[in-house]
Design a protein that fits this description.
Order of helices and strands: HHHHHH
Oligomer: single chain
Structural class: mainly alpha
Length: 107
């Protein structure tokens, strides 16, 4: 059951822009997936080996890298906002955490 829920989470995040909302919570994601609220963090931790926030921020970093590749004229702040981060500093911290470096930004 947990594996199916983990797949459902991954598919949902890949096919929607929900992760772009800075105020996204595990409760909101659980509701959108019709998964029990208390079960979602456990599934993410046990099946995906990360926390809810790591899962979402990794998705946001991935989106920011996609934006940089196709729209290099965007400023760091624009990329951050369009990826779901509250600020360019939050984006920089996440890139350093998940990629080990900060990508060169346009703008």
């Amino acid at each position: 059951r947990r594996k199916k829920i983990a797949q459902k989470i991954e598919e949902y995040l890949n096919n929607t822009d929900l992760y772009k909302y800075p105020e996204l919570t595990s409760t909101a994601l659980a509701k959108n997936l019709s998964v029990p609220e208390e079960e979602l963090p456990t599934v993410i931790k046990k099946e995906m080996n990360k926390s809810f926030y790591d899962l979402i921020n990794e998705k946001r970093v991935q989106r920011s890298e996609e934006l940089l590749a196709i729209q290099s004229h965007l400023s760091m702040e624009q990329v951050a906002i369009q990826s779901g981060f509250n600020s360019s500093q939050a984006l920089q911290r996440a890139m350093k955490k998940y990629r080990g470096k900060v990508s060169v930004m346009g703008g």
